[in-house]
Amino acid sequence: MQTDAFTAAARRLCDEVAVMTLATCTDATPWATDVYFAPDGFDLIFLSSPRSRHSRNLVINPSCAATIHPQVKSWREIRGLQIEGEVHPPEGTAAKARALAAYLTKFPFAQDLIAHPAETAGALAHATLQVLRPSRLRYLDNALGIGTRWSLRLVDGQAVGPPELEARE
């Protein structure tokens, strides 16, 4: 699989699926939660309350993992992304504007929620933008063969070399 094909497959998944499962860890205690996300290149943008358990974990340890996958009825249909990376808030006005634009493009309903936080029972009143910057993406697609998984290493949001076919486990 070439980088363009990998990127296209990952992009289709990110456009099709609204929620990613984010896994964090601190004090040797893992935690997973689902968050709405939007892609911005390989970066994944989400909103989160600083008081949430995963946000508090990420302040202590920004390393995380995530998965993105559609619901399927058969193991033969399994496909998705497995992600390793770090989460940080966007730095600077331009980065914040870009992250918010990516999020609102995918979730236009959030515009009204953000504009009127009092009406949403405060759920978004203190929410902050977060950016998951992957260091490795794995694309799994059983339609290409059971357990077929391609891996792409990233540095600063850019692919480093072509995707590599990983050995089946």
From TrEMBL:
Gene3D superfamilies named in the record: Electron Transport, Fmn-binding Protein, Chain A (2.30.110.10)
Transmembrane segments: none
Pyridoxamine 5'-phosphate oxidase N-terminal domain sequence ranges: 7-103
Designated name of the protein: Pyridoxamine 5'-phosphate oxidase N-terminal domain-containing protein
Organism (species): Candidatus Thiodictyon syntrophicum
